[in-house]
Amino acid sequence: MAAAAHADVIVIGLGAMGSSTLLALARRGISVLGIDRFSPPHANGSSHGDTRITRLAVAEGPEYAPFVKRSHELWRQLEDEAGECLFLQCGGLVVGRRPRKMQAGRMNSFVERTIEVAREYDIPHEVLNSDEIGKRWPQIGGGLVGDELGCYEPSAGLVFPERCITAQLNIAKRLGANTTLDTIVRYVESTDGGGGVRVVTDRGDFHAARAIVTPGAWVTDLVPSLKPLTRVRRQILHWFPLAHPEAYSPDRFPVYIWHHGYDAGDYIYGFPCLANENTMKVATEQSEINTTADDVDRLVDPIESEAFYKRHVERRFDGAMCPVMKRQVERRLEGSLSPVMKSVTCLYTVTPDGGFIVDETQPGVTAVSACSGHGFKHSAGLGEALADGACGRGGIGINSVSSSNLDTFGIERFLRFGNIVTENDFHSGLGYR
């Protein structure tokens, strides 16, 4: 075996959560081993796609705000150590339709919850109406219907997931962490007497005092008890061509989340056009069809991209330079080509309430999944809290998030579902990004 068979902590799965946890443990001088079935970063799970949105005002819940705030600080530190850009602060816009009168008494909308979190945590932001949004960003002005509410957060932006994972793994190894890659973990078990854990793989057994299991969409393979509480869903990311990419450069166009209708599927999220590229990444999420990490169809049919374009892009992006983009896409369709320049699949592992699961599932074993499509922006801060928990500490330094902040993500909150969880119990995560 390339790595020692014994460690203080073993981290299983080295995507967003696992690589950040590995680094945080290595920084604390802990003997740590990371295991992954592939060679991260890779495109087989949930931690890829070139870019991810990050924002401090997280409508998914105020309990996440401390983690994303700390993540921003850690990515800046990591940038200095790695010598490359990992976090691009270009601002973020959340847009949604104002509620119909008949929706009185409903839960607050995603935009309204975003504003509430921004106010609660004193996050600088602007509340905008549709006219103000259209004037500031004419690229989308023609796609607004006039009843929108928006929240603009200057501190939001995007992170580069593959770069972040690579930097975290490289620095962790520099600090003494070991990794065993292209290795399939068969199961994890507490040893007799609760004195540690054994990790059984296709390359032999590994032993540690604790294991932190961060396997993404493979979670039920390693933590079968979570099967009733998780679903895996295939999502598609699209990159559409731009004839004039300067109109969508990060200094002129923010990351965005746009709820353009009232149904669950009536929303998109996207990114500015990055330097030396001529595409714009746009995506949505589906919450109807389940799959597994091993059975998912990883190829994207051009029909899927065309349907996405016609539902979400064609009617939304018709301001500024967008007619040119539209014509570029039409020419590709006329030539029987996919309307996109690139498309890839990504996996969400979701819970019934769209929240995280972080809990001890057997003595010495902490499971970290599902992240319900909005995990990456919290991952650096969460990894630090997991490392502190594994070390038996409540937080290191004034900037750290206490490991006690993880309590809200425990399995106990699902007891109301009993032993039967129906598909109707699973809500859309609304927050991948």
Can you offer a commentary on this structure?
A hairpin with a 2-residue loop joins strand 11 (197-201) and strand 12 (204-213). The protein has helices at residues 16-27, 65-82, 110-120, 130-136, 138-141, 161-174, 219-222, 302-313, 322-334, 379-390; strands at 6-12, 32-35, 52-54, 87-88, 92-97, 126-129, 148-153, 157-159, 178-180, 185-190, 197-201, 204-213, 231-241, 255-259, 267-270, 279-283, 342-350, 358-362, 365-368. The strands form three sheets. Strands 1, 2, 9, 10, 11, 12, 18 and 19 form an eight-stranded mixed β-sheet that branches. An eight-stranded mixed β-sheet has the order 6-7-5-14-15-16-13-17, sandwiched between helices. Strands 3-8-4 form a three-stranded antiparallel β-sheet. It has two domains: 6-74 and 160-228 and 352-425, FAD/NAD(P)-binding domain (3-Layer(bba) Sandwich); 91-157 and 231-350, D-Amino Acid Oxidase, Chain A, domain 2 (2-Layer Sandwich), CATH 3.30.9. The longest helix has 18 residues, at 65-82. Residues 395-399 and 429-433 have low confidence and may be disordered. Helix 1 packs parallel to helix 6 (161-174). By secondary structure, the chain is of the alpha+beta class.
